Amino acid sequence: MNNLSESGKSGMNLKETELTLGLPGEPRVGKACMKRVFSETVDLELGNSGKKDSSGSGSSMKKESATSRGKLVGWPPVRAHRKNIMTVKSGKYVKVGVDGAPYLRKVDLELYNSYEQFLSIRTVLDEKKLMDPVNGVEYVPTYEDKDGDWMLVGDVPWKMFAESCKRVRLMTRSEAIGLAPRPETKCSSSSS
Amino acid sequence: MSEAQAQMSEDDADLAAAAGGASIRTAVVTTGGDYSSPYPDQVLENVLENVLIFLTSRRDRNAVSLVCKSWYRAEALTRSEIYIGNCYSVSPRRAAERFRRVRSVVLKGKPRFADFSLMPPDWGAHFAPWVIEMAEAYRGLEKLYLKRMNVTDDDLAVMARSFGNFRELVLVCCEGFGTAGLAVVASKCRQLRVFDLIEAEVSDDDEVDWLSCFPESGTCLESLIFDCVEFPINFDALENLVARSRSLKKLRVNRFVNLEQLHRLMILAPQLTDLGTGSFSPQDHPIDQEPDLVSAFTACRSLVSLSGFRETVPDYLPAVYPVCANITSLNFSYANITADELKPVIRNCHKLQIFWVLDSVRDEGLQAVAATCKDLRELRVFPIDATEDNVGPVSDVGLQAISEGCKKLESILYFCQQMTNAAVISMSNNCPDLVVFRLCIIGRYRPDHSTGEPMDEGFGAIVKNCKKLTRLAVSGLLTDKAFSYIGQYGKLVRTLSFAFAGDSDLGLKYVLEGCSKLEKLEIRDCPFGDSALRSGLHHYHNMRFLWMSTCRVTRQGCREIAQQIPRVIVEVFRWNQILEEGEKSDLVDTLYLYRSLEGPRADAPKFVNIL
């Protein structure tokens, strides 16, 4: 069952961590004499085990350096629960808002590969807007980029947009008039 | 982070008293009245009992019980809380026979290294034999605190139906139960005030809606903590529960409660003192306007503890500003935020005493903490990326800043990739109140990154200058010298943790010979062998346990220990080590040694050898 596969994996890892004459991972920075002291004491201390180490040291060390990039069991001492949690959340989330409507929506841009896909979600918000007594209001998607400038959505390649976009806002066409597609032209829009 | 944590580091001297008491007991008849006691003695005993009822400290009680037979009896009758630091140190029957009127039990099972997958899952620490014994002996039981125990749904069911006045259940780092067990507790324990699941592993196999199982009419709940539950809950049931729990003071929800839902709960419970905020992230399809979190937080005038933020988008953090000035405990250790995102929050937290954070805030973030949180007592900095690397986001710079700004620091846990002796020495000088110092340099055998020296002097300074130190965890490149410092100066140290450190047996010898108060010693991947093991023979019966994994102890060495000290159980296991072809090794993979009044346990799995 689970134990077997777990034990197999951990078995290899524990082998990695078994002490040999050399040290796994990082090269020793510091006094060379210390390294000597260490290996001397290891030799002295171990009767049969020492022999095992010295004869096998070459191969164990090789093994260790080969697998030193592999994960140690239980190191660093962070609980598995905590480690797992940190990998849950990823993605690039930006707020999407609509002028005049107080609600916002958080959207993961990494889920989309093109403007088409991204703008299709807009229809959900549009539907809401259609219920509004104020009809015939046209909305234009705009976004705030890394520099804090408000730009029209669609002028730069999708990837560039996804990377620099901090938040998105559907502005009314009248409000969006001041915006220009070029980054150099700063907008005077106060919405942010 | 419950206040029960304060108890966790306390030692369990019950056993010494029990061991002493056991020999006394053979002379004392359990049925009583075997000898005709003169009138004055009986009166004295009654008086004593009435006085002892007020004695709450465990250590004091242990001392009292050693005075004489009659004091032993009186103490046993008046002890209402028993603390069992190792569930295998004493049998349920023996505990129940000595202490007959117990209302509160603290029971701990596996050693801490089990949290890091160093212990096989079915090793033991079963709650079952305890609950069965207590169901008979302690019908008036009110409180149960279990840590690192294996608890099944059946155990919870037995508990729920056996104790009519049951009030508090706290399960810390436990596993083996699921929603069915939670449901039974919720529905049967009508007097329940505290229901806390802390870092527990709860299974959802049964998919029982346990939150709906609380009494309909209203509950006495004061604390409900389930932030570790890793599956969705019935929010409507939770909302309803909070609405009818007027005494609720602590509520920590899990990450399946979003921002809008949190808002609704806060509106219902502005009296909260402790709030775990769940995901702190809005739902994907908002149906209404963005909730007014700022008002909700402003209304929580009693809030002193904040946690959660499991999936927080930093934009929403400003909502907590209204409570910053009052909070004493803040757990951001699941919030992946930068220094700039932390600063506006932390600069208002003048009363902060406990702060847990991710190293994503970098040294700069820690400097901001040091600048504001002058009352800080406990700091924990967790790594967002737990892999070994040359540089990381926090380093000696952050530690130095904290040492200069937070002079009242008592407890620190600090993960980093690089450190200097200077920063550690600085902390030893600036923070004389340190009781717990745990530094984890993730890169193994890492020296001081600016001098290339081992980290001996830094840790040496800690044990030398921090006169109140009781718990120490070391890391980095360490020679036997570091251990000689620990043995020489660490006279109050009770818990020690070593990993990838030391040169020879001398290291461990220094510690075992010098640290006379040592109770818990956990060691992994250090070059300590049988000779070092032998040097602790005089002391093992005073310890709760010794753990050594992937060191240089042999089976024969362990056998010798087992033979030479009575009342110490020596377990060795080699549960996941696959011996290579032709390899014959006498080295044991893991040695776990603990004192016990009982013989070898009957529930040991096959891979565990008890010598």
From TrEMBL, chain A:
Instruction: Answer whether the UniProt record assigns the keyword Ribosomal protein to this protein.
Output: no
- Superkingdom, according to UniProt? Eukaryota
Q: Where is this region: Disordered?
A: 1-28, 46-73
Query: What Pfam families does the entry give?
Result: AUX_IAA
Gene3D superfamilies, sorted: Phosphatidylinositol 3-kinase Catalytic Subunit, Chain A, domain 1
Q: Where in the cell is it found?
A: Nucleus
| One of the GO biological process terms | auxin-activated signaling pathway
Bias type Polar residues, positions? 1-10
Keyword set includes Lyase: no
Query: What keywords tag this UniProt record?
Result: Auxin signaling pathway, Nucleus, Repressor, Transcription, Transcription regulation
Supply the InterPro entries for this chain. Answer: AUX/IAA_dom, AUX_IAA, PB1-like
PB1 domain residues: 91-175
Which cellular component, as a GO term, is one annotated location? nucleus
- Look up the coiled coil feature and give its residue ranges: none
Briefly state the protein's biological role. Aux/IAA proteins are short-lived transcriptional factors that function as repressors of early auxin response genes at low auxin concentrations.
| Family designation | Belongs to the Aux/IAA family.
Q: How does it assemble?
A: Homodimers and heterodimers.
User: What is this protein's name?
Assistant: Auxin-responsive protein
Automatic annotation (TrEMBL), chain B:
Kindly list the residue ranges recorded as spanning the membrane.
none
Q: Which GO biological process annotations does it have?
A: auxin-activated signaling pathway; SCF-dependent proteasomal ubiquitin-dependent protein catabolic process
Q: Name one GO cellular component term.
A: nucleus
Residues covered by the COI1 F-box domain = 41-80
The chain positions of domain Transport inhibitor response read 101-146
> Which UniProt keywords are present, listed alphabetically?
Auxin signaling pathway, Nucleus, Ubl conjugation pathway
Location comes to:
Nucleus
Designated name of the protein: Transport inhibitor response 1-like protein
Q: Which organism is it from?
A: Daucus carota subsp. sativus (Carrot)
Task: Supply the source organism's classification.
Answer: Eukaryota, Viridiplantae, Streptophyta, Embryophyta, Tracheophyta
